[in-house]
Design goal:
The chain is of the alpha+beta class. The strands form four sheets. It has an eight-stranded mixed sheet, sandwiched between helices. It is globular. Helix 5 crosses helix 6 and helix 8 crosses helix 10. Helix content is about 30%, strand content about 20%. It has ten helices and 17 strands. The protein has two domains: about 300 residues, 3-Layer(aba) Sandwich (Aminopeptidase), CATH 3.40.630.10; about 110 residues, Alpha-Beta Plaits (2-Layer Sandwich), CATH 3.30.70.360.
C-alpha cells in the first residue's frame, strides 16, 4: 500500500500548492478570495474522475463528495475535512515546490532565496527526518502544506479506496473548505447537509499527534473615549484617549499572561490592534485559556484594569465588549470517546506511536464540535506553517494517508 500511496500523494500535493489560494482578512465576500475556487474546481474534477459523481462545489466554495458504503450493515458515516486556503501573512503566488532527497542532517538553504534557511539547530522536527525526502518552497513564498498536505492526503486516501473495493467501509463524506486561515472556514458549512455523524480534520502538525483539545477563545474590544479640545486652550479640559489606552496597556502583566511569556497549558491576553485619536481609541484583544472558567477570569481582570484606568480620568468614557470565538473541543469530544479512540488505533495500525495533543489555538474542528459534529484534528506532517520556511516530508504524508485509510477500516469494524 505504501508504494501506491507515495506515488500519488506527492504528485497531488505538488500540483495543489501551485494554486494561489491565499485568503484575505477584512473581505466582504465569502469566500474572501475568489481564487480559492480555482483549486476547488480542480478537486471536483479529480473526485469525479475517481467515480465520485456526487462531487460538487457550492456558492460558498465548499467542495463536498460522498463515497457510498460497500457493506450492508449500518455503521456511522464519517467525514474527512481539510481547508484549501493559505495564510494571508505570506505570499502563496507562484509556489515552486522543491524536493530535497534523503535528508542527511544539514541545514536546508532554499534555492530561490539563500537567506531563507531551515536550520537543524532551530527545527527539532528535522531530527526525525534523517533519510526522508523533504518538500519546501523555493524560499520566496510559503509552501502551502497548511493545509494542502491535508487536502492531498484525503484525496489520495479516497483514490486508494476506489482502487481497492475489497476494503470494507461505511459511507464516507469529504469536504474541502475555504477561509480557515481567516477564522471563517465553517461559517456557512451545513453540518446537516454534510451528513456525517463524526469527522476528522487533517490540519495538524506532527504525524503522530491527535488534537483533542483547543483553547477556549474570545475577542475583546476596549474603547476609551476622550475629550477633544484645541491644544492651545486645552488645560484642564482635553482628555487624550490615546494616553488612556497607553496607560491601560502599561497595566498589563509584563512577565505572564501573554503569548510571548506562556507555553503548554497556560492561557493569555493578547493586544493585537490599536487604532484611534484624541477623542476615541480602540484596543483589540484575543483572549485564550483551555478552561472556560480561566477564560472568564482573564476577561474580568482585563475589564477591571480598563475600568481602573477610566476612573482615574473622570471626564473619560469606556466601552468594554467581549465576543465569543470558539470553545475547547475537549468538552464535546469527551462525550464521544470512541471518536478519538478510533483515531489512536488507526495511528497505531500505521506503525506510529500516537499521542494526544492540546492545540494552543483553534481548529475548524473546534467549531464543528459545537455545531453538532464531533471532530478531532489529525497530523498531516506540516511544519513551520505560515512562513517561507514551511516544509513537510514525503514519508509523513504517506503515513497520514495510511492513517486515513485505517480510520475507514476501524469504523467498518463497528463500535
Amino acid at each position: 500500500m505504501e508504494a501506491e500511496i507515495g506515488q500519488t500523494v506527492v504528485e497531488r500535493f505538488q500540483r495543489y500548492v501551485r494554486f494561489d489560494t491565499q485568503s484575505a482578512n477584512n473581505s466582504e465576500t465569502y469566500p474572501s478570495t475568489e481564487k480559492q475556487k480555482d483549486l476547488g474546481r480542480q478537486l471536483v474534477n479529480e473526485l469525479k474522475e475517481f467515480g465520485l459523481e456526487s462531487a460538487g462545489m457550492d456558492q460558498y466554495g465548499y467542495v463536498t463528495a460522498t463515497m457510498n458504503a460497500n457493506i450492508g450493515r449500518i455503521i456511522p458515516t464519517i467525514g474527512l475535512i481539510a481547508h484549501m486556503d493559505t495564510s494571508p501573512d505570506v505570499s502563496g503566488k507562484n509556489v515552486q515546490p522543491h524536493v530535497h532527497k534523503r535528508y542527511s542532517g544539514q541545514d536546508i538553504v532554499l534555492p530561490g532565496d539563500s537567506t531563507q534557511v531551515i536550520r537543524l539547530s532551530e527545527t527539532p522536527g528535522l531530527k526525525k527526518q534523517f533519510g526522508n525526502d523533504i518538500i519546501t518552497s523555493d524560499g520566496t513564498t510559503l509552501l502551502g502544506a497548511d493545509d494542502k498536505s491535508g487536502v492531498a492526503e484525503i484525496m489520495d486516501a479516497l483514490h486508494y479506496l476506489t482502487k481497492h473495493p475489497e476494503i470494507e467501509h461505511g459511507m464516507i463524506k469529504a469536504a474541502f473548505t475555504p477561509d480557515e486561515e481567516v477564522a471563517a472556514g465553517v461559517e456557512h458549512f451545513d453540518v446537516g447537509k454534510f451528513g456525517a455523524q463524526f469527522a476528522y480534520t487533517l490540519d495538524g502538525g506532527d504525524i503522530n499527534e491527535i488534537d483533542n483539545e483547543t483553547f477556549c477563545a474570545d475577542s475583546a474590544q476596549v474603547t476609551f473615549h476622550g475629550v477633544s479640545m484645541h491644544p492651545g486652550f486645552a488645560k484642564g479640559k482635553l482628555v487624550n484617549s490615546l494616553k488612556l489606552a497607553s496607560e491601560f496597556l502599561e497595566k498589563l502583566p509584563k512577565n505572564t499572561d501573554s503569548p510571548e511569556t506562556t507555553e503548554r497549558a497556560e492561557g493569555y491576553v493578547h493586544p493585537n490592534r490599536i487604532q484611534g485619536g484624541i477623542e476615541e481609541t480602540v484596543v483589540k484583544f484575543t483572549i485564550r485559556d483551555f478552561e472556560l472558567e480561566g477564560l472568564k477570569k482573564r476577561e474580568n481582570s482585563l475589564r477591571a484594569l480598563a475600568e481602573e484606568t477610566a476612573r482615574n480620568h473622570p471626564q473619560s468614557g469606556l466601552n468594554f465588549e467581549v465576543k465569543e470565538s470558539y470553545r475547547n473541543m475537549k468538552y464535546v469530544l469527551d462525550k464521544y470517546p470512541k471518536v478519538v479512540e478510533k483515531a489512536m488505533r488507526a495511528s497505531r495500525m500505521a506503525g506510529l506511536q500516537p499521542k494526544l495533543h492540546s492545540v494552543r489555538g483553534g481548529t475548524d474542528g473546534a467549531t464543528l464540535c459545537y455545531m453538532g459534529l464531533p471532530t478531532p484534528n489529525l497530523g498531516t506532517g506540516m511544519q513551520n506553517p505560515h512562513s517561507k520556511l514551511e516544509w513537510v516530508s514525503v514519508q509523513d504524508m504517506r503515513k497520514a494517508v495510511e492513517v486515513a485509510v485505517n480510520l475507514v477500516k476501524v469504523w467498518a469494524e463497528g463500535t
